[in-house]
Design a protein that fits this description.
Blueprint: H1 2-31, H2 36-72, H3 77-114, H4 119-148
């Protein structure tokens, strides 16, 4: 049972971190292909990727992580800090990344219906990208703590 939880935990981290790192890159590449319609499609693709990869990723990471802590009786400052950072990341992701994504999609859809991209669209896209990379950086920090167990 322990080995299965570890495997699920690691796979979920790979899926979560992979999407956090790659979504901004691919959104920007797709949006660069064309006009407003391409930006709408790219921004909607981010939402789909979050539903398929990010959401299940963090749910499985958190669930298997808590199960491993309980099952193995794990302790340590690195573990407490990692869990605290993960919970902080969840709040950050929901309050900043998802809100920026929602505004970005709304602006893109408004631009598609009107034919021109409002000036705010580029700002919302940059803001979402910035928050996304900060979010990924937090998860990378947690990964480093989990692997190195420094204290």
């Amino acid at each position: 049972m322990d080995w299965l939880m570890k495997i699920l935990h690691v796979l979920a981290v790979v899926v979560l971190l992979g999407n956090l790192l790659m979504a901004p890159f691919w959104r920007k590449r797709l949006a660069a292909l064309g006009g407003v319609q391409a930006r709408v499609a790219a921004n909607r693709s981010v939402r789909v990727a979050d539903l398929i990869f990010t959401l299940p990723g963090w749910v499985v990471v958190l669930a298997t992580g808590i199960m491993l802590i309980i099952y193995r009786g794990m302790q340590g400052g690195w573990l407490h800090l990692s869990l605290l950072l993960f919970l902080g990341w969840l709040i950050f992701w929901h309050m900043l990344v998802l809100r920026a994504r929602k505004a970005m999609i709304a602006q893109a859809e408004e631009a598609a219906s009107g034919g021109q991209a409002p000036a705010d669209l580029a700002q919302h896209e940059r803001q979402w990208q910035q928050w996304s990379y900060i979010s990924a950086g937090i998860v990378v920090l947690i990964l480093i703590l989990m692997v190195t167990r420094p204290f």
